[in-house]
Amino acid sequence: MNLRADWALERPGRNAGFALAPSRWIPSATGGTEKHVTVEGFNIPGCAGRLMLQDHLISAKQLTRTDIEAILDRAVEYADARGGGHENALLGLLFFEPSTRTKMSFDTAMKRLGGDTVDMGALESSSASKGESLADTVRVVAGYTDAIVLRHPSEGAAKLAAEFADIPVINAGDGAGQHPTQTLLDLFTIRESAGLEDLTVGIMGDLKYGRTVHSLAAALSKFGANQHFISPESLRLPRGVRYDLHEAGAQVREHTELEAVLPELDVLYVTRIQRERFPDEQEYRAIAGEYRIDEAALAKAKPALTLMHPLPRVDEIAAAVDELSHATYFQQAHNGVPVRMALLDTMLGADGGGR
Ligand code: NCD
Questions:
Q1: Nearest atom (ligand 1) to Cα of 271
Q2: Are residues 158 and 218 in the same domain?
């Protein structure tokens, strides 16, 4: 994967507040080296209340509590998935990694708002397979569409894309980095089921590579939630995420076992072990299946526990659990449409976003 971003890093950003983090050279999948940009230290001063109109959504760290609440309130209005008002808008879907829910719900959301989507399609059938850089692809697609949704295996890719696009870029997952729109639908789900006040949340599984976790933790810290992170030692939260949570004054505890903390939880958010991000398959095998939820594992849970999962699940939650009142993950996935409708409506602006 060659992002060919070297010159871009020297160029002043279109978004003056985007402080590019220190970058480093790493081996490229196509040979040679590539510049790797991380989202650490991402900071957009003074963007509260302004960001969501015509800007990019790269990290959950950008979102203030007010931004989040405004989108969730608007999503309630879209709960019946009826919309309109964006009849001329076109949304570009650039997915360099597999996706079912995120891509289909963005597609559905844009169409429910009256607009349409243009999809790059499978990686093998796109110019990326001929060696086109992400920067070039983004510049081209920005000329066709009114906003871009990007998923990419490299952390920092969405932030890079934002440097080349004069239309909003929405991060739909950048490697093990961030997945802020998943966080919005996660928060919507939590608000509906448990409320966002005085909340105690357990987040379990692959905390190292799970981008949904990194985004959710950042957002939950803005609501003052008590956060418990449960994982094997080797998959604990990355140091940078822990540092950010500490800086945000988040209430955080880490555990290797669920049992002791389960009775305290209002929400348990289970994640898939991100097999595709393990450098070593053996390492994955040693951990896979260790943190599995079945009926017995939930015996000491509060009756009102909300059990969530961003999906896809592999075997982290037994099928029998789907029948329990705790199981909220399919509703969570359905919430992706109204929440993404609300986000697109906000980002495309009052003029409908069309050209
Ligand atoms: C997640 C992702 O892509 O990070 N999926 C999703 O968007 N719902 C979680 C995962 O793949 O495990």
A1: 12
A2: no
Q: How many A from CA of 149 to the centre of ligand 1?
A: 15
Residue 171 lies in a domain: yes
Helix, coil or strand: residue 278? coil
Report d(CA 313, CA 310) in Å as an integer: 8
Count of C-beta atoms within a 10 Å radius of residue 296: 8
Residue 300 lies in a domain: yes
What number does the ligand 1 atom closest to the CA of 336 have? 8
Q: Tokens for 37, please give them.
A: 């940009």
Rounded Cα distance between 245 and 354, Å, is 38
pTM of the shown model: 0.85
Tell me, in angstroms, the distance from the centre of ligand 1 to residue 178's CA: 10
Average pLDDT over residues 148-171: 97
Split into its structural domains, the chain has a count of 2
Beta bridge partners of 270: 204
Specify whether 225 is located in the same domain as 113: no
pLDDT 10s digits, 263-291? 999 999 999 999 999 999 988 988 888 89
> What are the tens digits of pLDDT across the range 42-65?
333 333 333 443 489 999 999 999
Domain that includes residue 172, residue range: 48-178+335-348
CA count, 13 A, side-chain hemisphere, 9: 17
Given 38, 86, 102, 328, the catalytic residue: 102
- Of all protein residues, the one whose alpha carbon is nearest to atom 1 of ligand 1 is 310
Q: Are residues 152 and 197 in the same domain?
A: no
Residues 155 and 267 in one domain: no
* Per-residue CA distances from 29 to 33, 185, 199 (Å): 8, 33, 43
Cα 176 to Cα 172: distance, rounded to the nearest angstrom: 12
- Asked if the structure places residue 21 within a domain, the reply is no
Residues 201 and 61 in one domain: no
Q: Which of 152, 179, 191, 309 is catalytic?
A: 179
